[in-house]
Amino acid sequence: MVHANRLHYDPKAKPARKPAKGGARSARDICVGVLNLVAILVGLAAALSYLINGNFTWNYAPPTLARLKAQYLQPSLTLTPAELALYNGTDPTLPIYLAVMGDVFDVTAGREYYGPGGGYSFFSGRDAGRAFVTGCFQTHLTPDLRGLTPDELKSVDEWRSFYENSDKYFRVGKVAHPPIDPSSPIPPPCDGNDEESAASKEAAAAPGAAKPVGN
Asked: Model-level pTM greater than 0.90?
């Protein structure tokens, strides 16, 4: 005879979960602890950076919105010299561009240097690669690099790389120069008696010369 109160055994039933031991930590507690440790380490690193560099980011400059748009959202530009000239800083609604060896760079972040009245405004709105190494701002504000020495050509390319790798400035495209007539004269040197030209030549004498302040 089967007892009326006898429990029915179900082989598919899941066994009851055993209660957790009092000393065991939940996954949530572990995650919170890890996050707290990371926050402490980040805070210590930021404080150390401020003591050493005067900023909290170890001199890292996050990309500007204009840079992100130019690199990821906008197609690369191809400008004529006349179109490039429009970006010389005289129109405050437009960015400031300059070119080196055909590559066009946005230097708007240095408007105080490349805008009207700035110390390097003569580079804006044009490809003046020759003047970057000769320091001649009378006749060498031109992309014509004929007659330069191998070291001078290397120095022009170093300037191009400087803008390419700058934290402040960035490449936006190319300028399409018309072909240079090989029979045309090479740009003449500046008047050696011009004091400004002489000082500029001294500053740009060697490849890898000092880059403009603020860049």
From this structure: no
